[in-house]
């Protein structure tokens, strides 16, 4: 897969893509990742890439010319079927399902906005999808674009071994992960749950499932509705909820 970033701050993106999982994915040839500076395309004689908003209001808006030209130039180097993605707090919510869909594409062009936003004509005529990583506003699109890339890379076979398949199943069941432990079995007097040392696979699986349920019901009750649960599990959660509201 080819992933390209368009940004005014390549120095923010570059260290991350050189390190850890993205770095490994590049080395293994699983992802071809490049970073381009939008400012390189500006035709403004002072190198400006932003201007005051029509209609007034606070902040500056990124002008269309450098964005149209940089998107067109970088897009031309990318495979057919590449999607242009723009992180924005007004975009569709990002989740694992969308990450997996994007991972099936031949290319992603991530366009990082800055200042108060970008001229809407860029969105209307060059961007395929606006994506929000959550209900808060960041100062720019670099961190969200890196988050999108990171989540997408995990779905590319070979990037993180087979752990990804496991995660995906877990999210598809709509539950949060159960807690994990490693050696030593007792650390500073704190033991790991005994069942995990039992070697009894069915008991361990049942314990893990229950932990996932308890955690999801407590931290993300909104996920329970769409999760694949047995009738007994639904009843158990309902009665735990009734008990806690009765207290
Ligand atoms: N840019 C600024 N805030 C953002 C958010 N929450 N998600 C995606 N892009 C953003």
Describe it.
The protein has 247 residues and is an alpha/beta fold. 43% of the residues lie in helices and 16% in strands. The strands form three sheets. Strands 2-1-6-5-7 form a five-stranded parallel sheet, with helices on both faces. A two-stranded antiparallel ribbon has the order 3-4. Helix 3 (64-76) runs parallel beside helix 5. The relative contact order is 0.13. Adenine is lined by residues 87-89, 132-134, 136-138, 141, 144.
Protein traits:
10 helices, Alpha/beta knot, alpha/beta, 247 residues, two-stranded antiparallel sheet, Trp Operon Repressor, Chain A
Radius of gyration: 23 Å
**Structural class label:** alpha/beta
Query: What's the quaternary structure here?
Result: single chain
The strands making up the biggest β-sheet line up spatially as: 2-1-6-5-7
Fraction of helical residues: 40-55%
pLDDT averaged residue by residue: 93
Cofactors, ions and other ligands in the entry = adenine
Main CATH class of the largest domain: Alpha Beta
SSE series:
EHHEEEHEHEHEHHEEHHH
């Amino acid at each position: 897969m080819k992933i390209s970033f368009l940004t005014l701050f390549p120095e923010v993106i570059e260290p991350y893509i050189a390190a850890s999982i993205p770095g490994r994915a590049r080395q293994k040839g699983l992802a071809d990742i490049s970073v381009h500076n939008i400012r390189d395309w500006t035709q403004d004689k002072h190198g400006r890439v932003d201007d005051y908003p029509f209609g007034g209001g606070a902040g500056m808006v990124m002008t269309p010319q450098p964005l149209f030209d940089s998107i067109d130039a970088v897009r031309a180097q990318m495979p057919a079927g590449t999607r242009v993605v723009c992180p924005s707090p007004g975009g569709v919510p990002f989740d694992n399902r969308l990450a997996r869909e994007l991972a099936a594409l031949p290319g992603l062009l991530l366009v990082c906005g800055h200042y108060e936003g970008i001229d809407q004509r860029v969105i209307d005529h060059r961007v395929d999808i606006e994506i929000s990583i959550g209900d808060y506003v960041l100062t720019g699109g670099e961190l969200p674009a890196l988050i999108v890339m990171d989540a997408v890379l995990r779905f590319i076979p070979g990037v993180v071994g087979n752990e990804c398949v496991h995660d995906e199943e877990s999210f598809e069941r709509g539950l949060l992960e159960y807690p994990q432990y490693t050696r030593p079995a007792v650390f500073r007097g704190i033991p790991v749950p005994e069942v995990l040392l039992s070697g009894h696979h069915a008991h361990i699986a049942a314990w893990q499932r229950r932990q996932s349920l308890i955690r999801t019901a407590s931290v993300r009750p909104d996920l329970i509705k769409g999760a694949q649960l047995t009738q007994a599990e639904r009843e158990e959660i309902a009665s735990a909820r009734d008990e806690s509201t009765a207290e």
